[in-house]
Amino acid sequence: MKLKNTGMKRHLYFLISIFAAALCSISVFASTEEKPGPFVIPELKTWEAGKGAMTVSGTMRIAVPSGDEELLRIAGMLAEDWKTMFGYLPGIVTEKGTEGDIVLEIKNDKRLDRLSGGSAESYSISITDRVRLSAATARGVFWGTQTILQMADRSIPGGARDIAVSLPCGKILDWPDYGLRGFMMDCGRKYIPMSYLRKLTRIMTYYKMNTLQVHLNDNGFKQYFGGDWDRTYAAFRLECDTYPGLTARDGHYTKEEFIDFQEEASGMYVEIIPEIDVPAHSLALTRYKPEIGSQEYGMDHLDLFNPETYTFVNALFKEYLEGGEPVFRGPRVHIGTDEYSNKDQDVVEKFRYFTDHYIRLVESYGKQAVVWGALTHADGETPVKSENVIMNAWYNGYADPRQMVEDGYKLISIPDGLVYIVPAAGYYYDYLDEQNLYENWTPAHVGDAVFAERNTAILGGMFAVWNDHAGNGISVKDIHDRLFPALQTLSVKMWTGTETALPYADFDSTRRYVREAPGINFSGRIGTEPGCVLEMAEVTPGSSLPYPEIGYDYTVSFTIEGKAEKPGTELFRSEDAVFYLSDPVSGMMGFARDGYLNTFRYSIQDGDRLEVTVKGDNRSTTLIVNGRVIDRLEIEKRWHNEGKSVMYYVPTLVFPLQQAGDYRSRITDLKVYNHQL
After folding, report:
1. Which member of 173, 265, 322, 418 has the lowest number of beta carbons within 10 Å of its beta carbon?
2. pLDDT band at residue 499 using 50, 70 and 90 as cut-offs
């Protein structure tokens, strides 16, 4: 998106001491004059403490009623996650369950139904000599399993697998304030690998987030490309048969993998909302077919007065929506419709016609349409369907939320001035102001428009990552570094709402001990206490190391006895990055990730004996040789458009450790620290 000018207690929680920082996965409970309650994210709605604790041992089983296939599937997921986290696979039985078991059941609870307003996502957990998880729906049961996993994980020191899990006895009643809790990823201006989208979806489920909007096409800003639309970056990320050649060649999703992705997410009760953004942000389409581009408003705008535009876009949506098993599998499809010019009334009316047309086109395929709010900006007489239409309320100058509700739209609260992350752009947020959001925001706050909490016109909320500055060096790791803590915070505000019990400082200091998700550590965090987390006397070529990578902030040091290395010689690699002893272009030391090559001004020479240190954080990567800083690659201003526009280039690295390269040099005394020395 482009920059806009935007300006009690149901229960008490207090932390007992956060045990030693060395504990990677500790039991942190809130303490009251009564009984302690568990810290989980998002915060529980109610906790009624019992006496003592239940020990969950390696003999624990997961019990489900006979004949309930969906609960059996959920039990299977819980068992696999348990194995990942604690090292043993619980058995699954179709019986009532006994002492020490986890019991899953579909059961109505009148009190819970009353408290939750009939939410299909509510659940209850009773912990006595067994764990009994009940909900009116399988979806509610699934969210309850995530609570159990978080509680269990935090009950043992350091994630140790030989220590039994201990769960405090008590009763949980839990439900969300908002039914839609989501995130939007701009994949158009930066390719986001499917492997990460899958990880992201699992992370979202661990925090009870249930909607991921995937922005499938977009383009950069022409001022960063010589003011030339023909040179400006643009991409359409889906395989396309109707228009061969439309699909981006620098990264895209096949139909098969996108279908699999949606089905996998649905299996974890996360809806994928695919977005094809028209009629603005559409340079990828007009580059394929220039005659449908607007000469008046720019080639990122479709020509709304050209009948060929409608023929083209109709056929594009048809490819992904038609048939009994369409490519877009979920119930909702996003059609874009934001930030088109309102230069004159004729184009405004045509934009309104276009929006209405594609709402109805999507509906004709049995889907619910989702749009970006734009109808205040495009105020006019041409009717636009509102019944059963969802609107992303992002900027009140484009769509006044109160007016949109009055007109009949259901809103997703995604206010740009509060929840937009635009990495390294210099506007909106690089990292969200999480304290302000935690203390003051819920989806009822749509910019400066504030609705009553749980207003039925507000379906829920989202936050977003917009990769506006195509080519700025930002990696997927950098995006994750910004996204994950925001996800933790906003999951609380979308589920728990206003009545959080913990002060932000306590929440912030404690959430660092909650993992991303079972089996996922995309941040590359190793340990919690600052120290040396890996030592190796010698690293032999081609060997595998115990960790795939080390995340920000780190120090990696080693001794090298240099040999002449051919260009492209790797020291280490992971799935996401390569560190070179001799990069493939200049023969210097350097690294590559996300298609970017970053080079230090230093080369290893035959006969060198050197002490090498690499330090990295979320702003820079530094090379030190024999105690002297050789090169510090840090965020760099790059000027464009005759010095009128600046782009910040980011040369960061999550250091790869997974596999040693095929080098001739000798590498000894490797030390990896999870902090900067």
Report:
1. 322
2. confident
Query: The domain containing residue 607 runs over which residues?
Result: 532-673
Joined together, the tokens standing for residue 532 give 């040396």
Total domains in the chain come to: 3
pLDDT at 18: 29
Same-domain check for residues 168 and 196: no
* Token code pair at residue 396: 């009140």
- Counting every residue written for the chain, the total comes to 677
CA dist list (Å): 586 to 543, 547, 626, 629, 664: 26, 29, 22, 20, 18
The verdict on residue 1 lying in a domain is: no
Tens digits of per-residue pLDDT, 129-154? Answer: 999 999 999 999 999 999 999 999 98
Task: Output the pLDDT for position 23.
Answer: 30
Pairing of strands 46-56, 29-30: unpaired
Q: Does one domain contain both 131 and 278?
A: no
Asked if residues 179 and 119 have their Cβ atoms less than 8 Å apart, the reply is yes
**Of the candidates 642, 182, 636, which has an alpha carbon nearest to the alpha carbon of residue 424?**
636
Does residue 539 fall inside a structural domain? yes
Looking at residue 80, its pLDDT comes to 98
What average pLDDT does this structure show over 187-199? 98
35 backbone φψ class: left, alpha, beta (φ>0; ψ -120 to 50): beta
Q: Which among 464, 501, 522 has a CA at the least distance from the CA of 40?
A: 501
User: What is the mean predicted confidence (pLDDT) over 552-560?
Assistant: 98
- In this prediction, residue 163 has a pLDDT band, given cuts at 50, 70 and 90, of low
CATH code at position 360: 3.20.20.80
Do 541 and 616 sit in the same domain of this protein?
Answer: yes
Tell me: do 490 and 435 sit in the same domain.
yes
Q: Are the C-beta atoms of 506 and 15 separated by less than 8 Å?
A: yes
- 158 in any annotated domain: yes
Tell which of 140, 174, 208 closes a domain: 174
Distance of CA 222 to the CA centre of its chain: 28
For residue range 303-349, list pLDDT tens digits in order.
999 999 999 999 999 999 999 999 999 999 999 999 999 999 999 99
CA distance 92 to 77: 11
Going from the C-alpha of 551 to that of each of 8, 87, 473, the distances in angstroms are 40, 24, 17
pTM reported for the whole predicted model? 0.93
Q: In this structure, is residue 20 part of a structural domain? A: no
166 and 206 share a domain? no
Q: How far apart are CA 325 and CA 347, in angstroms?
A: 36
Question: Can you tell me the distance from the alpha carbon of 430 to that of 479, in angstroms, rounded to the nearest whole number?
Answer: 10
Q: Within this chain, do residues 125 and 147 fall inside the same structural domain, yes or no?
A: yes
The CATH code of the domain that includes 139 is 3.30.379.10
3-state SS, residue 403: helix
Residues 462 and 586 in one domain: no
Cis ω on the peptide bond leading into residue 42 (within 30° of 0)? yes
Cα separation, 144 vs 181, in Å, equals 16
Model confidence at 1, pLDDT cuts 50, 70, 90, reads: very low
* Residue 284 burial (C-beta neighbours within 10 Å; 0-12, 13-18, 19+): buried
CATH number at residue 580: 2.60.120.200
Task: Write out pLDDT tens, residues 8-56.
Answer: 333 322 222 222 233 323 333 333 333 347 999 999 999 999 999 999 9
